Amino acid sequence: MTASISNVVLVTVDSLRADALDQAMPVAAGLADDGAVFERAFAHGNWTPFSFPSLLASRPVFADTGEIGVTGSPTLAAVLSKAGVATGGFNAANGFLTAHWGYDEGFDEFESFVGDPSGRVGRFLAAHPTVAGWAGLAKSPFRRVAATLRGDPTDRPFADASRLTDVEDRATAFLADAEEPFFLWVHYMDAHTPYVPAPRYLRAVSGSRLGTHRMLVAHARTGLGRRVSDRTLADLRTLYRAAVRQVDAGIGRLLGALDDAGIRDETAVVVTGDHGEEFMEHGHLAHYPKLYDELIHVPLVVDVPGIDGTSVDHHAGLADVPPTVCDLLGVEPADRWTGRSLLPAVHDDRPADEDRHEPILSVTVRGEEVTAQPIPRSLSEGDLLVSARADGWIYIENAATGDRELYHRPSDPDQQCDRSRHPDAEAAAAIDRLRGPVREHADLLAEAREDAGYGPGTAGDSVRTRLEALGYR
Fold first, then answer.
1. What distance separates the 2 farthest-apart alpha carbons in the chain?
2. Is the N-terminal amide bond of 374 cis, ω within 30° of 0?
3. Among 189, 315, 324, 449, which is most exposed with the fewest C-beta within 10 angstroms?
4. Which helix (DSSP H) or strand (DSSP E) does residue 188 occupy?
5. How far from the centroid of its chain's Cα atoms is residue 49's Cα?
6. Beta pairing partners, 267
7. Burial of 316 by CB count in 10 Å (0-12 exposed, 13-18 middle, 19+ buried)?
8. Which helix (H) or strand (E) holds 361?
9. Does 3.40.720.10 match the CATH number of domain 7-348?
10. 49 and 69 in contact (C-beta within 8 Å)?
11. Do β-strands 36-42 and 310-317 pair in parallel, antiparallel, or remain unpaired?
12. H-helix or E-strand spanning residue 390
């Protein structure tokens, strides 16, 4: 273990953009001031089911079975539990983070707050998380009445629409009962559409109260496919910031629970998003199948008591989170994991691996329409897109069609100028450097799909060898 660290709390926030840390998260920003903030942290997918295999099992999505889920690789909780660490995981009703997809593996206590995903309704809600969010919102008037009868705060019905308070109640109970060392994972859904913050958080981010009518109109217009006016977009951004502030307050309550238990000084806290959120930067809202920074660039904060705060400018992928947590707790990471511990960078701003120059790879699967639902569950449900980020460049290629894009982040931070169309010498060199890892990653995922269920000595070893060749562990 690092210094006197006995415990780790991992907080993941669905749809959390990198810029939200500075715009709407004073508690998390305070953690960043005291800890290490990774300025160039990237998700490995644009959607929860594409990102979380890396985040909780340090494996690329599709690398083991050609499908979503983590059934093909040991999870972080499983590795820690085997080492004698108490584990608790609580997810605010994201249907893709349930036992059905393997995310309960290794947790002593686990609750996803969703119905049975094997049933017809459960499968539909798992494939349509925004619909699930609207279903939660529809219940809020009844929750409001119940809360009034109980004498609860007036903002609880809004928070309950995302199961925030349910998750916090379970997490707080886990903290009160768990014996050290422990690992606690909490996943918030408030920043996912539909954004339904309590009025107090709207006032906190905007200085005024955005009325319920305007909130519903903004959501209804976008839900019906109407043109997104400047006012509607501004309203949605305000709602999003307020929802993020609501999550931030929840993080503050978790930290308070650690203080109340007298264990804050021996508990490391990691905060990140599983992917970002788009607000028309590339023509859409929410997080449709694209690989631009608004969806892939996420905040990543690692606060370790006793270590001075620092800003880390090195690239990091979310696959690095599991080995980092293991490093904090003095536990050996799983051999199949692909990430590397970031703890060296937390200590003294050195890269996790000084010789690592490989790009950060991210994927999505796109059907015939960008906005097609439900979310693909396997590689066979659309074209695979792979992106690579390194040395200030973003290269994106459609593995099925060969279509490609190239952007230079320092001069084009919003990715509006595709340098692949008429590449100069600098752009051509970037394409030559990044095209190989992208195509190799696409090939190994295709191989995993074809050989799902492989055993030692067959295709599995080949996939592992090629992951290592791409710079993964």
1. 69
2. yes
3. 449
4. strand 182-188
5. 9
6. 7
7. buried
8. strand 360-366
9. yes
10. yes
11. parallel
12. strand 383-390
- 42 C-beta neighbours (distance < 10 Å), count: 28
- The reply to whether omega before 194 is within 30° of 0 (cis) is yes
Question: Residue 45 pairs with which residues in a beta bridge?
Answer: 363
Average pLDDT over residues 436-455: 79
Number of alpha helices (DSSP H) and beta strands (DSSP E) in the chain: 17, 15
Instruction: Spell out the domain ranges in the chain.
Output: 7-348, 360-469
Angle (CA) 59 91 5, round 5°: 70
Structure tokens at 456: 């030692």
In this structure, what token pair is assigned to residue 187?
A: 């996943």
**Which of 341, 292, 360, 317 minimizes the C-alpha distance to 55?**
317
Return the SS3 of 303.
strand
Helix axes 129-138, 120-127, angle to 10 degrees: 110
Radius of gyration of the chain (CA): 21
Sign of CA dihedral 377, 379, 384, 386: positive
Q: pTM (2 decimals)?
A: 0.86
Task: Yes or no: say if 319 and 472 are a contact pair by the CB < 8 Å rule.
Answer: yes
CA angle 414, 281, 15 (to 5 degrees): 100
pLDDT single digits (tens) 341-399: 999 999 875 655 544 568 999 999 998 777 776 688 888 888 999 999 999 999 999 99
Residues in the chain: 473
Residue type, 362: S
Distances in Å between the Cα of 150 and the Cα atoms of 140, 156, 163, 332, 435 are: 15, 11, 17, 47, 59
Ranges of beta strands (E only) in 232-338 are 267-273, 278-279, 285-286, 297-298, 300-303, 310-317
Alpha carbon dihedral 364, 71, 73, 390, in 10-degree steps, equals: 10
Task: Check: CB of residue 187 under 8 Å from CB of residue 232.
Answer: no
